[in-house]
Fold:
Amino acid sequence: MRLNHLNLSVTDVPGTVSLMETFFGFARTADMPVNEHMAFLRGPDGFLLSMFRARDVTYPKSFHVGFLQDTPEQVLAVRERLLGAGFTVPEPQRNHGRLTFYFDAPGGFVIEVESFLGE
Structure:
C-alpha cells in the first residue's frame, strides 16, 4: 500500500499551483484540470496533489506539508530561490538532526523544507 494523493483546501489555487510547479517539481497532466477553482498536479514520484479553492482555510496549528531534500545545501538553495521570488522565509534551524525551515504558502497552509544533517 502507498499514499496515493493529498487534497488541500486553499485560498489561492493559481498561486499554490505556481509554487508547487516552480519550487517542488510538481507538473500538470493533460487529463486533469487546473483552473482557479481546482487543480491536480503530479509530483516527480507520481504522487497526486489535488487542491480545491475555499474561502476560509483553517488548518490545525501543527499541520504542514513537508518536502525532504537530499542535502542541507539543497535546503539553503530552495530558501534562496523562495526569497528571490518574494516569499518571507526564516533562516533554517537545526532541529532533531535536521536542517529545516517553515514558511506560509499562498494557499493558506504551511510548508516545511528539510534535510537530515548526518551528524
Notes: Residues 85 and 91 are 16 Å apart (CA to CA). Residues 72-84 form the longest helix (13 residues). The mean pLDDT is 95.
